[in-house]
Each structure stands twice: as C-alpha cells, then as structure tokens.
Amino acid sequence: MLKDMPLDKLSRPLRDLRVSVTDRCNFRCPYCMPAEIYGERYEFLPRNDLLTFEEITRIVKLSTQLGVKKVRLTGGEPLVRQDVVELVSMIASLDGIEDFAMTTNAYLLSGMAESLKKAGLQRITVSLDSIDDEVFKKMNGRGFGTAKVIDGIAAAKEAGLDPIKINAVVQKGINDNTLVELASWCRDNGYTPRFIEYMDVGTLNDWKLDEVLPASEIVKIIEGEFSVTPIESSYRGEVAKRYRYKDGKGEFGVISSVTQPFCGDCTRLRLSPEGQIVTCLFADGGTDLRGPMRSNIPDEELLNIMSGTWSNREDRYSEIRTSMTSPRKKVEMYHIGG
Length: 338
What we know:
By secondary structure, the chain is an alpha/beta fold. The protein has a single domain (about 15-335), classed as TIM Barrel. The protein contains 11 helices and 12 strands. It has helices at about 55-65, 85-90, 115-120, 135-140, 145-160, 180-190, 215-225, 290-295, 300-310, 315-320, 335; strands spanning about 15-20, 70-75, 100-105, 125, 165-170, 190-195, 230, 240-245, 250-255, 270, 275-280, 285-290. α3 links the parallel β3 (about 100-105) and β4 (about 125).
C-alpha cells in the first residue's frame, strides 16, 4: 500500500470507483445512445477487447490501496454482460470496500436480483426517467413499457438490495410534467428518487442548455405537492442535494451538474470496459491499463500508473462549461457510466 493516499491537483482524494463492465445496452435513450446512431449495424467492443473479470478485480483491489471505499458497477447496461454475477462475487470478496452498488435500467433485474444479493452486491440504483408508460417508452428509445422495470425494482427490494435509488434525467418539455408522479410513487414504495439535470455528456445527444430544467425548479415542482426541508450532506463528494418530506415519508435528491456544479468535491474515478481509467465524466480520454496488464506488469508498477493518473488530475469541466468558447470531444456516457 502507498504510504500516502494520492490527492489530485485540487487536493481531492480518491474514494469512488465506477466500473463500466460493457459498452452495450438494451435501451437507446436519446440522451445517451440515440438509436439513429447506435442501430443494429453499430459495432460495439469485441469481446477480447473487454477487460476480463480477473483484470477488473485486480484493478478494483489496487484501487482500494489508493483510498477507494465505494465501488459501483455500471455500463452500458451491466446486466447484459454475461456472467456478471460472477464478477460481483469476485469484487465482493475483496477487503476495504464499504459500499458496493450497481446502476442498472432494471429491465433484466427481476430474474437476477436474488443472485446479485447472494453474490455480495449491497444495493442498486435504477435509471427510470418516468413512471408514465408513454413518456418512458419515448425516453428509452425502444418502446419498452415500465412493467418489467417495476418488477425488477420490486425483486431487488424483496432480495434486500436496498436502499434503492431511482435516477431520473429531467428534460424540459419531455418528462418534467411527470416528476410529481414519480416522486409520489417512490414515496409510496420506499424508494429514493434523484432528479438529474440533463447534461452534455458525450457528443451525440444534441444537448442544448435551454432543455435543462434547473435543479432549483425541480425542487419547486416537488414542493408544490409536498412539504419538504433540506438535509445536510452525509459525506464529502455527495453529488445529490437532499430533501426530506416533512411527513416522514422518505426523501428525494437533485443533481445539479449544470446549474450548480460540484466539481470541487468530486472523488470519482471511472474504469471503461476496455481498461481506460478516466478521471471525469466529461473527459476526452483516459489512461490505458489493459495494455500494461496484458504485458504482465507487476502490481506495484500498475499501482504507480493509477496513482500518477489521479495525482495529475485537475478536471473541473462542470465549473468551466459556460466559459468554454467551443464544444470539445468527450467520452460517451454509455462507455464510462453516469
């Protein structure tokens, strides 16, 4: 273990690792993987280019020596990665991980929830942009209804994969009229919704600032139906600003990456499916670990690459977004997880 945990150039420690296990997804959400681009002929990463489970586990294990306490599996859609339960078991067996979660669209979750829990996964976050069936069909780009997702969430609750958070990307004029309905459904079922400002992730979603509904407006919409009060952050780097319902029926959060950036407390590192470590959701590239690993590099040298990458980090894209004179190339969100 390194004697001193690395800090980046803005004195931020490394605490969270988000592992994208695949670039494939069974949805085609327009803000992430628009169907007109990611159609039937689109070529995803060949299987041999993906990190093996052993390689992923090795990186996760080394990351704990750099300060990582929280690990989240993402994608793409992680449940489409073959035998992903085996990977969960391998990571869960490692020492030093205090919080082990997964972000999923839950479409395949009902048949896997119990196995994931038994393998060692602690909790899940489900991407569900609306509980309204027609709005949801439009937003997932496949015309899928909410039924299988709701069944998956219920199965996760039954299996004990909780607390369960529900992530909803809010697009003005698309699903902003269904926020109260989603909040109410979450209240009734014991889930915690997190409403996320529509972000300029990647380069292919035709993002426009005027399609962003500010977090402050989202809170006002919820407050129009329920009495709420703010909650203090529970740890450094918590991305959601939290509010509890005064009647005691849970809480909700808003994530304001566009209007109220929180780069100053970001403690996240991302691992792409083919082995790049990426230091920002809006980065234009990463540092390759697959090549060195497949060249039989020893752990100490691999650890030095990881530590050096974090130590040289100075990302704060969300804080400087509005001052940029032209768009820049960015890694696509489906490739490194949200």
